[in-house]
Design goal:
Structural class: alpha+beta
Shape: elongated
Radius of gyration: 28 Å
Number of helices: 21
Largest sheet: 10 strands, antiparallel, barrel
Strand order of the largest sheet: 1-2-3-4-5-6-7-8-9-10
Number of strands: 10
Distance between the termini: 23 Å
Length: 640
């Protein structure tokens, strides 16, 4: 389906919901009407009933507006908050629901934040529209209805959303949300709105490909290589895409944003990730990490998050980056958080008195009696000036007790077999470059370049496998690997040696050779082979065994993917025997990897080493495909 067809499909879906804006408007009018009705016949006992989330939200927003000097905006702020929360406006505090919202740390369906610049302040509210029976699908529908209401009454633009909406329709039952909305309030200009979408809404393993395709559809055709090279350089398991955001405006400064969660990242790694943007200032990230989480060498209790923004004039390079620190997991109580923020704001000339007034207005308890009012603190440069944003958890559903030790996330330790199943369910062909190859018309030149870069890997594989066999003491493992080696060597038939069959394939696709090909284009293949050779020949043979097991799983996924692509061409089947043979063999080899994993589990040291082999092979394979994407689609991509 072409981009225009995607946009048309999304537009039909959105237009089908236009009539919902009228019902939403009627609901709002009814709500205000009820509030104005006489209390004749009112049961006095109802006066002690529990407040609703909306009522508490309005109380807190009123206090924040007063503390921030935004009283003139209060009526508008309350009106917009009511509109955005109409889907759960009558829900009372404490009312049970099967859907604790991921918007806030305490499960409330809204969260506040304040952004502090040297000379101005911004108040924001983030809300999750929810269905009557909240779940991914009903919340998505409620979000679409809110979109239409905002478009009708606040003139927001849904054009960009229409271009990508079908990519985010939720089907992944493990996803934490489908759509959020944010309103931004300023003392001296009209309110603005943002939309947050979930890249993991269809499958976590496809989140990178969803982000890449969204950028391409929106015209930022060279954005992905920049993200892959810097912000996501540690691979999909460490650098996870979690949010995709759109400013709901049509002007040239309207942003497209992507957010990554960086698991177990060090301050230096966060600094490296943020360097992708034009507003990056060396040292900012490390200094902010040290100020917000003193002495923290890695963010393992809860991951830090980075965000990158593109505007209309950007393409390869984002205009700005932001670092978000989950500070409530790196402080004992909110008094300690305030002390850290006071020092940082004073040192950098930011309005500490504004921050203190906001916290006093919002707090319902002494700061030292709990931790969690501040969920995140964030830093970005705007016109070279620091801008600090504070994300404020409403603490409606409870307050976390102070902690003498930092909160740690519980992390399960998977078995080798579990890890292989994980890689089966997070397949290599979900990488953006293989997804793009499959969704676009077949490109023989790109296929030729891919296989040219795999030539060394295929050529050296049989010797590498023999080395792993020779150095492993478990006869059962040696037996299965020897079977695979025998097949690799043609089962005794010299003409069926897989290396020779691969060379026949390369001869068959020689007409696809790129006219502009240079030897430099094979650098990614050489680096990939060198990394694999280091793993195969590691002094601990279980490292190489882990690499070999995962490559069989990846081999199956890759060969099946390539088989589909080659069948779109008119190449003779006799020329691609290597590929058709591997489509069959690798299915069995992947199953055998699961059996080998069970045998390897009997060695405790072997398990640790094999996991290292898994992780390093996954990263090397992902980085190889990142490099291929850069060659095929990057800003300096080759001409075919």
């Amino acid at each position: 389906m072409s981009n225009s067809e995607h946009a048309s499909t999304a537009s039909v879906s959105i237009n089908a919901n236009e009539n919902t804006s009228d019902s939403l408007k009627l609901s709002l009018e009814n709500q205000h009407s009820i509030e104005r009705q006489s209390q004749v016949g009112f049961d006095p006992e109802r006066l002690i009933s529990t407040k609703t989330y909306v009522e508490v939200g309005i109380e807190k927003l009123t206090a924040l507006c007063e503390s921030l000097g935004m009283n003139a905006k209060l009526a508008e702020v309350v009106e917009i908050f009511r509109a955005m929360t109409i889907s759960w406006s009558d829900r009372q505090i404490g009312e049970s629901t099967q859907w604790p919202s991921d918007v806030s740390d305490d499960g409330s369906p809204f969260e506040f934040s304040i952004a502090l610049d040297p000379d101005k302040v911004e108040l924001r509210v983030l809300v999750e529209a929810q269905g009557q029976d909240p779940n991914l699908q009903s919340n998505w529908q409620a979000g679409l209805e809110l979109n239409q209401y905002l478009a009708t009454h606040y003139n927001v633009s849904l054009d960009r959303f229409a271009q990508i909406a079908d990519l985010f329709v939720p089907t992944n039952t493990d996803a934490k949300f489908s759509m959020w909305h944010s309103a931004c309030f300023y003392p001296d200009k009209p309110s603005a709105f943002k939309l947050y979408l979930n890249p993991q809404s269809q499958h976590k393993s496809r989140s990178a490909a969803i982000v890449e395709e969204s950028f391409v559809r929106l015209g930022f055709t060279h954005a992905w290589p920049t993200l892959a090279e810097t912000a996501a350089q540690r691979g999909p398991d460490k650098d996870e895409f979690v949010y995709f955001s759109l400013d709901l405006a049509a002007h040239q400064h309207a942003r497209v944003k992507v957010y990554l969660r960086h698991h177990d990242a060090t301050p230096a790694e966060l600094e490296s990730a943020l360097s992708a943007a034009r507003n990056y200032v060396p040292g900012d990230a490390i200094e902010f990490c040290q100020a917000m989480a003193p002495g923290q060498t890695s963010f393992s209790a809860k991951p830090a998050i980075s965000a990158f923004s593109w505007v209309e004039s950007d393409n390869a390079t984002p205009s700005s980056s932001t670092l978000h620190i989950p500070i409530s997991n790196y402080a004992t109580d909110d008094r300690a958080v305030c002390d850290r923020l006071d020092l940082y704001l004073i040192e950098h000339g930011l309005p500490v008195s504004t921050y203190q007034a906001a916290i006093r207005s919002l707090s319902t308890r002494p700061l030292e009696t709990g931790i969690g009012m501040h969920s995140y603190t964030a830093l970005r440069r705007e016109q070279q000036q620091r801008r600090v944003t504070l994300y404020l958890n409403p603490e409606i559903n409870g307050v976390r007790h102070p902690s003498t030790t930092l909160t740690q996330l519980a992390k399960s330790i998977p078995s080798l077999e579990d890890m292989l199943w994980y890689y089966e369910n997070h397949p290599l062909d979900h990488h953006p470059v293989l997804q793009r190859l499959q969704r676009e018309p077949v490109n023989p030149q790109h296929l030729w370049l891919l296989f040219m870069n795999l030539r060394l890997v295929v050529t050296n594989f049989s010797r590498s496998l023999a080395s792993i066999i020779a150095r492993n003491d478990d006869e059962r493992i040696r037996c299965l690997l020897a079977k695979q080696l025998n097949e690799e060597l043609g089962n005794g038939n010299i003409n069926r040696i897989h290396r020779k069959l691969f060379e026949q394939l390369m001869t068959g696709i020689e007409p696809w050779r790129m006219v502009s090909f240079t030897e430099d284009m094979l650098k990614i293949g050489k680096e990939y082979d060198e990394c694999l050779q280091d793993l195969y020949l590691d002094p601990n043979p279980f490292v190489g065994l882990g690499a070999a097991m995962l490559l069989e799983v990846y081999g199956k996924q890759f060969d099946l993917c390539m088989g589909r692509e080659f069948r779109k061409t008119n190449i003779a089947r006799s020329a691609i025997v290597w590929l058709t043979l591997h489509e069959e063999l690798e299915v069995g080899h992947a199953d055998e990897s699961l059996v080998i994993a069970r045998f390897a589990t009997e060695s405790k040291d072997g398990v640790t080493a094999a996991k290292q082999g898994f992780e390093k092979t996954r990263l090397a394979s992902w980085r190889f495909l990142d490099g291929l994407y850069q060659l095929c689609y990057g800003a300096s991509s080759v001409t075919v």
